[in-house]
Amino acid sequence: xxxxxxxxxxxxxxxxxxxxxxxxxxxxxxxxxxxxxxxxxxxxxxxxxxxxxxxxxxxxxxxxxxxxxxxxxxxxxxxxxxxxxxxxxxxxxxxxxxxxxxxxxxxxxxxxxxxxxxxxxxxxxxxxxxxxxxxxxxxxxxxxxxxxxxxxxxxxxxxxxxxxxxxxxxxxxxxxxxxxxxxxxxxxxxxxxxxxxxxxxxxxxxxxxxxxxxxxxxxxxxxxxxxxxxxxxxxxxxxxxxxxxxxxxxxxxxxxxxxxxxxxxxxxxxxxxxxxxxxxxxxxxxxxxxxxxxxxxxxxxxxxxxxxxxxxxxxxxxxxxxxxxxxxxxxxxxxxxxxxxxxxxxxxxxxxxxxxxxxxxxxxxxxxxxxxxxxxxxxxx
Length: 381
Prior knowledge:
The chain is an alpha+beta fold.
Protein backbone atom coordinates (compact mmCIF):
# COMPACT_ATOMS: atom_id res chain seq x y z
CA UNK A 1 0.00 0.00 0.00
CA UNK A 2 1.39 3.39 -0.94
CA UNK A 3 0.60 6.26 1.41
CA UNK A 4 0.39 9.92 0.36
CA UNK A 5 1.48 11.94 3.36
CA UNK A 6 -0.26 15.14 4.45
CA UNK A 7 -2.72 15.14 1.55
CA UNK A 8 -5.67 17.47 2.14
CA UNK A 9 -8.69 17.57 -0.12
CA UNK A 10 -7.76 21.16 -0.95
CA UNK A 11 -4.60 19.78 -2.57
CA UNK A 12 -6.42 16.97 -4.36
CA UNK A 13 -9.41 18.82 -5.85
CA UNK A 14 -9.71 21.59 -8.43
CA UNK A 15 -11.93 23.71 -6.14
CA UNK A 16 -8.95 23.77 -3.73
CA UNK A 17 -11.03 23.56 -0.56
CA UNK A 18 -11.51 20.84 2.02
CA UNK A 19 -9.72 19.43 5.03
CA UNK A 20 -7.66 16.28 5.42
CA UNK A 21 -8.71 12.66 5.10
CA UNK A 22 -7.79 10.09 7.72
CA UNK A 23 -5.69 8.32 5.08
CA UNK A 24 -4.88 8.74 1.40
CA UNK A 25 -3.73 5.75 -0.64
CA UNK A 26 -2.65 5.46 -4.25
CA UNK A 27 -3.57 2.87 -6.90
CA UNK A 28 -1.20 2.98 -9.88
CA UNK A 29 -2.36 -0.23 -11.58
CA UNK A 30 -5.73 -1.89 -12.11
CA UNK A 31 -4.66 -4.74 -9.82
CA UNK A 32 -3.87 -2.27 -7.04
CA UNK A 33 -7.18 -0.52 -7.64
CA UNK A 34 -9.08 -3.80 -7.32
CA UNK A 35 -7.15 -4.84 -4.24
CA UNK A 36 -7.50 -1.55 -2.36
CA UNK A 37 -11.14 -1.01 -3.33
CA UNK A 38 -12.13 -4.56 -2.37
CA UNK A 39 -10.47 -4.22 1.03
CA UNK A 40 -12.03 -0.84 1.71
CA UNK A 41 -15.44 -2.10 0.66
CA UNK A 42 -15.21 -5.15 2.92
CA UNK A 43 -13.96 -3.07 5.89
CA UNK A 44 -17.29 -1.23 5.88
CA UNK A 45 -15.58 2.02 6.89
CA UNK A 46 -16.02 5.39 5.12
CA UNK A 47 -13.95 5.73 1.98
CA UNK A 48 -13.94 7.84 -1.16
CA UNK A 49 -12.75 7.13 -4.69
CA UNK A 50 -11.03 10.17 -6.19
CA UNK A 51 -9.72 10.75 -9.70
CA UNK A 52 -8.78 14.25 -10.81
CA UNK A 53 -10.86 15.91 -8.09
CA UNK A 54 -12.63 18.11 -10.62
CA UNK A 55 -16.11 17.04 -9.59
CA UNK A 56 -15.72 16.82 -5.83
CA UNK A 57 -16.10 19.35 -3.01
CA UNK A 58 -15.34 18.23 0.55
CA UNK A 59 -16.11 20.07 3.79
CA UNK A 60 -13.51 21.99 5.77
CA UNK A 61 -13.62 19.24 8.39
CA UNK A 62 -12.18 16.88 5.79
CA UNK A 63 -13.17 13.29 5.14
CA UNK A 64 -13.48 10.86 8.08
CA UNK A 65 -12.07 7.87 6.25
CA UNK A 66 -9.79 6.78 3.42
CA UNK A 67 -9.38 8.48 0.04
CA UNK A 68 -8.33 6.10 -2.75
CA UNK A 69 -6.62 7.93 -5.61
CA UNK A 70 -7.16 6.39 -9.06
CA UNK A 71 -3.86 6.67 -10.93
CA UNK A 72 -3.70 3.64 -13.28
CA UNK A 73 -2.88 4.99 -16.75
CA UNK A 74 -2.48 3.78 -20.32
CA UNK A 75 -4.17 3.69 -23.73
CA UNK A 76 -4.35 0.46 -25.75
CA UNK A 77 -5.76 -0.17 -29.23
CA UNK A 78 -7.98 -3.20 -28.73
CA UNK A 79 -9.12 -3.54 -32.33
CA UNK A 80 -9.39 -1.57 -35.57
CA UNK A 81 -10.64 -2.13 -39.10
CA UNK A 82 -9.90 -0.76 -42.56
CA UNK A 83 -13.41 -0.26 -43.90
CA UNK A 84 -14.47 3.11 -45.43
CA UNK A 85 -16.13 3.87 -42.07
CA UNK A 86 -12.99 2.79 -40.24
CA UNK A 87 -13.37 2.39 -36.47
CA UNK A 88 -10.79 2.01 -33.75
CA UNK A 89 -11.54 0.65 -30.31
CA UNK A 90 -9.44 2.00 -27.47
CA UNK A 91 -9.12 0.69 -23.94
CA UNK A 92 -8.24 3.51 -21.57
CA UNK A 93 -7.24 2.94 -17.94
CA UNK A 94 -9.46 4.69 -15.41
CA UNK A 95 -6.72 6.93 -14.02
CA UNK A 96 -5.65 8.32 -17.39
CA UNK A 97 -6.00 12.09 -17.68
CA UNK A 98 -9.05 12.74 -19.87
CA UNK A 99 -7.68 15.68 -21.85
CA UNK A 100 -4.41 13.87 -22.51
CA UNK A 101 -6.53 11.08 -23.99
CA UNK A 102 -8.37 13.56 -26.24
CA UNK A 103 -5.09 15.17 -27.30
CA UNK A 104 -3.57 11.78 -28.18
CA UNK A 105 -6.67 10.78 -30.15
CA UNK A 106 -6.71 14.03 -32.11
CA UNK A 107 -3.03 13.68 -32.96
CA UNK A 108 -3.72 10.19 -34.32
CA UNK A 109 -6.65 11.52 -36.35
CA UNK A 110 -9.27 9.62 -34.36
CA UNK A 111 -12.54 11.54 -34.08
CA UNK A 112 -15.47 11.23 -31.71
CA UNK A 113 -14.27 12.99 -28.54
CA UNK A 114 -12.60 16.12 -29.94
CA UNK A 115 -15.39 18.40 -28.69
CA UNK A 116 -14.74 17.04 -25.18
CA UNK A 117 -11.32 18.72 -25.14
CA UNK A 118 -10.32 20.53 -21.98
CA UNK A 119 -12.65 18.67 -19.62
CA UNK A 120 -10.67 18.04 -16.43
CA UNK A 121 -10.60 14.71 -14.64
CA UNK A 122 -9.78 11.08 -15.30
CA UNK A 123 -11.19 8.66 -17.85
CA UNK A 124 -12.85 6.43 -15.25
CA UNK A 125 -15.13 9.24 -14.10
CA UNK A 126 -16.35 9.97 -17.64
CA UNK A 127 -19.09 7.29 -17.77
CA UNK A 128 -20.28 8.05 -14.23
CA UNK A 129 -21.33 11.54 -15.31
CA UNK A 130 -21.70 10.75 -19.02
CA UNK A 131 -19.58 13.83 -19.67
CA UNK A 132 -20.57 16.03 -22.57
CA UNK A 133 -19.85 19.38 -24.20
CA UNK A 134 -20.37 21.22 -27.48
CA UNK A 135 -22.69 18.63 -28.98
CA UNK A 136 -20.76 15.47 -28.04
CA UNK A 137 -21.36 13.08 -25.15
CA UNK A 138 -19.38 10.11 -23.96
CA UNK A 139 -22.44 7.92 -24.66
CA UNK A 140 -21.90 8.62 -28.39
CA UNK A 141 -18.66 6.61 -28.39
CA UNK A 142 -18.60 4.46 -25.24
CA UNK A 143 -18.42 0.76 -26.10
CA UNK A 144 -18.12 -0.75 -22.62
CA UNK A 145 -16.39 -0.50 -19.28
CA UNK A 146 -14.35 -2.87 -17.13
CA UNK A 147 -16.00 -2.70 -13.73
CA UNK A 148 -15.27 -4.07 -10.28
CA UNK A 149 -18.81 -4.97 -9.23
CA UNK A 150 -19.08 -4.96 -5.46
CA UNK A 151 -22.42 -6.76 -5.30
CA UNK A 152 -21.32 -9.55 -7.68
CA UNK A 153 -17.84 -9.58 -6.11
CA UNK A 154 -16.18 -9.81 -9.52
CA UNK A 155 -14.59 -7.83 -12.31
CA UNK A 156 -16.85 -7.79 -15.35
CA UNK A 157 -17.26 -6.00 -18.64
CA UNK A 158 -20.47 -3.99 -18.93
CA UNK A 159 -21.71 -2.85 -22.36
CA UNK A 160 -22.56 0.83 -22.63
CA UNK A 161 -26.19 -0.06 -23.40
CA UNK A 162 -26.54 -1.46 -19.88
CA UNK A 163 -25.29 1.68 -18.11
CA UNK A 164 -28.49 3.76 -18.50
CA UNK A 165 -26.46 6.72 -19.74
CA UNK A 166 -28.41 9.98 -19.72
CA UNK A 167 -27.84 13.68 -19.23
CA UNK A 168 -25.03 13.78 -16.64
CA UNK A 169 -26.11 10.48 -15.17
CA UNK A 170 -25.64 6.73 -15.37
CA UNK A 171 -26.47 3.52 -13.54
CA UNK A 172 -23.22 3.99 -11.61
CA UNK A 173 -24.21 7.44 -10.42
CA UNK A 174 -27.65 6.11 -9.52
CA UNK A 175 -26.37 3.34 -7.28
CA UNK A 176 -24.52 0.60 -9.19
CA UNK A 177 -21.85 -0.10 -6.59
CA UNK A 178 -18.31 -0.61 -7.78
CA UNK A 179 -15.27 0.94 -9.43
CA UNK A 180 -14.56 1.66 -13.09
CA UNK A 181 -11.19 0.11 -13.96
CA UNK A 182 -11.05 1.03 -17.66
CA UNK A 183 -13.28 2.26 -20.47
CA UNK A 184 -13.51 1.17 -24.12
CA UNK A 185 -14.24 3.81 -26.75
CA UNK A 186 -15.18 3.39 -30.42
CA UNK A 187 -13.69 6.25 -32.41
CA UNK A 188 -13.55 6.95 -36.15
CA UNK A 189 -10.14 6.64 -37.79
CA UNK A 190 -9.52 9.15 -40.58
CA UNK A 191 -7.93 7.72 -43.71
CA UNK A 192 -6.22 11.04 -44.44
CA UNK A 193 -3.70 11.39 -41.60
CA UNK A 194 -2.48 14.72 -43.03
CA UNK A 195 -5.90 16.38 -42.82
CA UNK A 196 -8.09 14.38 -40.44
CA UNK A 197 -11.64 15.68 -40.11
CA UNK A 198 -13.82 15.95 -37.05
CA UNK A 199 -17.24 14.45 -36.71
CA UNK A 200 -20.12 16.71 -37.83
CA UNK A 201 -20.14 19.90 -35.75
CA UNK A 202 -23.27 19.59 -33.60
CA UNK A 203 -23.35 22.76 -31.49
CA UNK A 204 -24.29 26.23 -32.70
CA UNK A 205 -21.79 28.21 -30.61
CA UNK A 206 -18.96 25.96 -31.74
CA UNK A 207 -20.04 26.19 -35.38
CA UNK A 208 -20.10 29.99 -35.13
CA UNK A 209 -16.62 30.06 -33.61
CA UNK A 210 -15.35 27.86 -36.44
CA UNK A 211 -17.11 29.91 -39.12
CA UNK A 212 -19.12 26.92 -40.39
CA UNK A 213 -22.68 25.67 -40.14
CA UNK A 214 -23.97 22.91 -37.89
CA UNK A 215 -23.37 19.56 -39.57
CA UNK A 216 -20.15 20.58 -41.30
CA UNK A 217 -16.88 18.72 -40.68
CA UNK A 218 -13.66 20.59 -40.06
CA UNK A 219 -10.03 19.85 -39.26
CA UNK A 220 -10.07 17.82 -36.06
CA UNK A 221 -7.08 19.76 -34.75
CA UNK A 222 -8.73 23.10 -35.44
CA UNK A 223 -11.88 21.94 -33.68
CA UNK A 224 -9.87 20.98 -30.60
CA UNK A 225 -8.07 24.34 -30.58
CA UNK A 226 -11.39 26.16 -30.88
CA UNK A 227 -13.02 24.19 -28.07
CA UNK A 228 -10.06 24.86 -25.79
CA UNK A 229 -10.26 28.57 -26.64
CA UNK A 230 -14.02 28.66 -25.92
CA UNK A 231 -13.60 26.79 -22.64
CA UNK A 232 -10.73 29.04 -21.58
CA UNK A 233 -12.88 32.12 -22.27
CA UNK A 234 -15.33 30.71 -19.70
CA UNK A 235 -12.67 29.79 -17.16
CA UNK A 236 -13.20 26.09 -17.86
CA UNK A 237 -9.60 25.10 -18.63
CA UNK A 238 -7.47 24.58 -15.52
CA UNK A 239 -4.90 27.32 -14.99
CA UNK A 240 -3.19 27.79 -11.60
CA UNK A 241 -2.83 31.52 -12.32
CA UNK A 242 -6.52 32.05 -13.10
CA UNK A 243 -8.83 31.92 -10.08
CA UNK A 244 -11.82 31.52 -12.38
CA UNK A 245 -10.56 27.99 -12.99
CA UNK A 246 -10.34 27.18 -9.27
CA UNK A 247 -13.71 25.52 -9.49
CA UNK A 248 -15.45 22.24 -10.16
CA UNK A 249 -16.56 23.37 -13.60
CA UNK A 250 -20.29 23.86 -14.00
CA UNK A 251 -21.64 23.80 -10.46
CA UNK A 252 -25.27 23.22 -11.50
CA UNK A 253 -26.83 20.94 -14.08
CA UNK A 254 -29.30 22.27 -16.61
CA UNK A 255 -32.70 21.45 -15.08
CA UNK A 256 -35.17 19.24 -16.94
CA UNK A 257 -38.85 20.13 -16.48
CA UNK A 258 -42.17 19.26 -18.08
CA UNK A 259 -43.26 21.14 -21.17
CA UNK A 260 -46.26 22.38 -19.18
CA UNK A 261 -44.01 23.95 -16.56
CA UNK A 262 -41.67 25.39 -19.19
CA UNK A 263 -44.60 27.40 -20.58
CA UNK A 264 -44.74 29.33 -17.28
CA UNK A 265 -41.26 30.74 -17.83
CA UNK A 266 -40.49 33.94 -19.76
CA UNK A 267 -40.60 33.47 -23.53
CA UNK A 268 -36.92 34.38 -23.83
CA UNK A 269 -35.80 31.57 -21.52
CA UNK A 270 -33.80 29.08 -23.61
CA UNK A 271 -35.35 25.62 -23.77
CA UNK A 272 -34.35 22.43 -25.52
CA UNK A 273 -36.64 19.42 -26.11
CA UNK A 274 -35.46 16.22 -24.44
CA UNK A 275 -35.96 13.07 -26.54
CA UNK A 276 -38.34 10.73 -24.78
CA UNK A 277 -39.60 7.21 -25.13
CA UNK A 278 -42.50 6.71 -27.50
CA UNK A 279 -45.46 4.67 -26.22
CA UNK A 280 -45.43 1.08 -27.43
CA UNK A 281 -47.84 0.41 -30.31
CA UNK A 282 -51.10 -1.25 -29.33
CA UNK A 283 -51.93 -3.88 -31.94
CA UNK A 284 -54.95 -6.16 -31.89
CA UNK A 285 -54.78 -8.92 -34.50
CA UNK A 286 -57.74 -9.89 -36.69
CA UNK A 287 -57.72 -13.30 -35.03
CA UNK A 288 -58.05 -11.71 -31.59
CA UNK A 289 -60.90 -9.47 -32.77
CA UNK A 290 -62.68 -12.46 -34.31
CA UNK A 291 -62.35 -14.27 -30.99
CA UNK A 292 -64.00 -11.35 -29.20
CA UNK A 293 -60.89 -9.82 -27.63
CA UNK A 294 -61.24 -6.11 -26.75
CA UNK A 295 -59.42 -3.57 -28.88
CA UNK A 296 -56.10 -2.62 -27.34
CA UNK A 297 -55.88 1.09 -26.56
CA UNK A 298 -52.47 2.78 -26.91
CA UNK A 299 -50.97 4.18 -23.74
CA UNK A 300 -51.06 7.94 -23.48
CA UNK A 301 -47.90 9.57 -24.71
CA UNK A 302 -45.72 10.75 -21.79
CA UNK A 303 -45.51 14.47 -21.32
CA UNK A 304 -42.63 16.01 -23.21
CA UNK A 305 -39.66 17.11 -21.13
CA UNK A 306 -37.70 20.30 -21.67
CA UNK A 307 -34.11 21.09 -20.69
CA UNK A 308 -33.55 24.65 -19.46
CA UNK A 309 -30.37 26.73 -19.29
CA UNK A 310 -29.15 26.95 -15.70
CA UNK A 311 -26.84 29.82 -16.69
CA UNK A 312 -29.78 31.85 -18.06
CA UNK A 313 -31.84 31.19 -14.93
CA UNK A 314 -28.98 32.28 -12.67
CA UNK A 315 -28.22 35.46 -14.62
CA UNK A 316 -31.89 36.42 -14.83
CA UNK A 317 -32.46 35.84 -11.13
CA UNK A 318 -30.18 38.83 -10.52
CA UNK A 319 -26.87 37.05 -9.95
CA UNK A 320 -24.15 38.48 -12.15
CA UNK A 321 -20.71 37.22 -13.10
CA UNK A 322 -18.29 37.86 -10.25
CA UNK A 323 -21.06 38.00 -7.63
CA UNK A 324 -20.00 37.11 -4.10
CA UNK A 325 -21.50 37.31 -0.63
CA UNK A 326 -19.94 39.85 1.75
CA UNK A 327 -16.77 38.53 3.38
CA UNK A 328 -16.76 35.32 1.33
CA UNK A 329 -13.75 33.91 -0.52
CA UNK A 330 -16.06 32.18 -3.03
CA UNK A 331 -17.61 33.93 -6.01
CA UNK A 332 -19.50 33.24 -9.19
CA UNK A 333 -16.97 33.10 -12.01
CA UNK A 334 -16.25 36.43 -13.68
CA UNK A 335 -16.50 34.60 -17.00
CA UNK A 336 -19.45 32.22 -16.60
CA UNK A 337 -22.34 32.18 -14.13
CA UNK A 338 -22.50 28.37 -13.98
CA UNK A 339 -19.21 28.14 -12.09
CA UNK A 340 -18.59 28.86 -8.42
CA UNK A 341 -14.94 29.70 -7.88
CA UNK A 342 -12.34 29.97 -5.14
CA UNK A 343 -10.86 33.45 -5.29
CA UNK A 344 -7.80 32.29 -3.34
CA UNK A 345 -8.95 32.10 0.26
CA UNK A 346 -12.32 30.37 0.09
CA UNK A 347 -13.44 27.69 2.48
CA UNK A 348 -15.74 24.82 1.59
CA UNK A 349 -18.32 26.56 3.76
CA UNK A 350 -18.03 29.68 1.57
CA UNK A 351 -18.65 27.59 -1.55
CA UNK A 352 -21.69 25.84 -0.06
CA UNK A 353 -23.16 29.10 1.26
CA UNK A 354 -22.91 30.76 -2.13
CA UNK A 355 -24.39 27.69 -3.84
CA UNK A 356 -27.36 27.74 -1.47
CA UNK A 357 -27.89 31.43 -2.17
CA UNK A 358 -27.91 30.83 -5.94
CA UNK A 359 -30.39 27.94 -5.56
CA UNK A 360 -32.65 30.11 -3.39
CA UNK A 361 -32.61 33.07 -5.81
CA UNK A 362 -33.46 30.92 -8.85
CA UNK A 363 -36.22 29.12 -6.94
CA UNK A 364 -37.74 32.38 -5.75
CA UNK A 365 -37.63 33.93 -9.21
CA UNK A 366 -38.62 31.02 -11.42
CA UNK A 367 -39.78 28.13 -9.23
CA UNK A 368 -36.92 25.95 -10.48
CA UNK A 369 -34.67 24.12 -8.01
CA UNK A 370 -31.14 23.82 -9.35
CA UNK A 371 -29.21 20.63 -8.56
CA UNK A 372 -25.45 20.69 -7.93
CA UNK A 373 -23.34 18.77 -10.43
CA UNK A 374 -20.27 18.00 -8.27
CA UNK A 375 -20.27 15.40 -5.51
CA UNK A 376 -20.53 17.15 -2.14
CA UNK A 377 -19.15 15.50 1.02
CA UNK A 378 -20.14 16.95 4.39
CA UNK A 379 -21.80 19.87 2.61
CA UNK A 380 -25.31 20.85 1.57
CA UNK A 381 -26.04 23.14 -1.37
